[in-house]
Each structure stands twice: as structure tokens, then as C-alpha cells.
Amino acid sequence: MSTENILITDDNGVRLVTMNREDKKNAITEDMYAAMADAIITAQDNDAVRVVMITGAGNVFTAGNDMSAFLNPKARMGDADLPVERFLQAILRAKKPLIAAVNGLAIGIGTTMLLHCDLVYASDNARLSMPFINLGLMPEAGSSLLLPFAVGTKKAAQMLMFGDFHDARDAADMGLVNEVFSSDALMDEAMVRARALAAKPPAALLLIKNLLKREPETPAQRMARESALFGERLQSAECKEAATAFFEKRAPDFF
Asked: What is the pLDDT of residue 242?
């Protein structure tokens, strides 16, 4: 499944998708968007894959969209057949947990895609930016809606209207990043967490992600939905295995 510029490996329930174009700072081409979209979409119905993690080769996550695409007069966003749109739909609709390991620069879509990730880990040299304004462009990936929810309206306005860089600690303080590690430790630490997530009860994990990603409900509506699902899960094989493992003093086996 791997291509020259997108490397894909499956191990211990984790599909690692690596942008591999170091000489161009992992700037994303149409072929790369297509390969990443395929990797995420095919993972959804693959029982051996529980978690998808995206990272960049070398010391850069991604410099964003390959700039040559902006000079293409036929380029249009919104066309469902475009590779970039397929990728955006893939991260939007992913049922399984999506993790990002951000090493170095994360520019443009390198930052906006993080808003669709359930967990984000960054190296201490990571720098995030959404410089759309500087190119006379609008933000994409639903970021004008998702960013204010993540960091607040005023902070989102600052980030989108100025397009400045923000370091990893600032991103963590804002809530865009879960944890920050040294650049040498990032991939090991992120993979430890990805594998731990992959070992969780898979059906319950999907339901939790679905609840977190649902459109807004009233507290009463959400409580009723949770109660109904909780009752169903009490009868599930996963719950029975977890309880049995607890009493047998062993690790549960959800594979």
C-alpha cells in the first residue's frame, strides 16, 4: 500500500501513515493526498487496524499543500473527486481513533488536519501555523468552525487573521496538543500511546469517538444516549472479557 512519498505500516493494531518527501519538507501533492485518503479509508473496515497515526519523515511534519497546486488554474476545492477533498472527508468521517505525531513544522493543512485528530503529540521543536491569510486564501478543513471550539473565538481569530507561528508549548496550552516530547522521543512516546489505545475494547472505543464527534445535543439528550449505550455495552463480549480478566487478575484480550 505504500508509495514513494507515503509510507504505510501496520503493527500491533496501529496503522502508521508517514509523509515521506523530506527534500520538499513533506509538502503534500495530489498523489500523497490520494494515498493518505486510501490508507485512512481502508483502515475503517480492517479489523487488524484499531488506530491510525499520521506523521512526517525527518524533522518536519509537513510544510502544507504543495505550492504548485495554487498556480493550477483548474484547481478547485469542493470537488469530491479531488484527492485533497477525499483526504479531508477521510479524516472528517474516520470512525477509528486518529492520532498525529507532529515533528517540526506543521503549516496550513499540517495544522488544520490536527483539528480532526483525536489525540495530538508534538516534539518540542514543533511549530504550527495557518498562513492562509498571507496567501489571500480562506482556511479549510472546517477549521473556521473547529478552531474556535478548540481554543476560543479570540485566539482563533488571532491565529487565522495573522497566520503567525505557534510553538509546541503554546499549542499545548491552547489545547491543540495533548503532550510535548523531545524530538528524539516523540515517535516512541506516540507509538506507546497508540498501541495502548489499540489494546482497548475496539467497539467501545468506536462508540466513545462517535459520541465525542456528534453534533451538539442538550445534556438530557446526551445523558439518555449514553445510558442506552451503557446498557447495551454491559451485555457485550468486551465488557464480559474485561470483568473476567479483572477477577482472574490478568490483562484483558480484546483481539
From this structure: 87
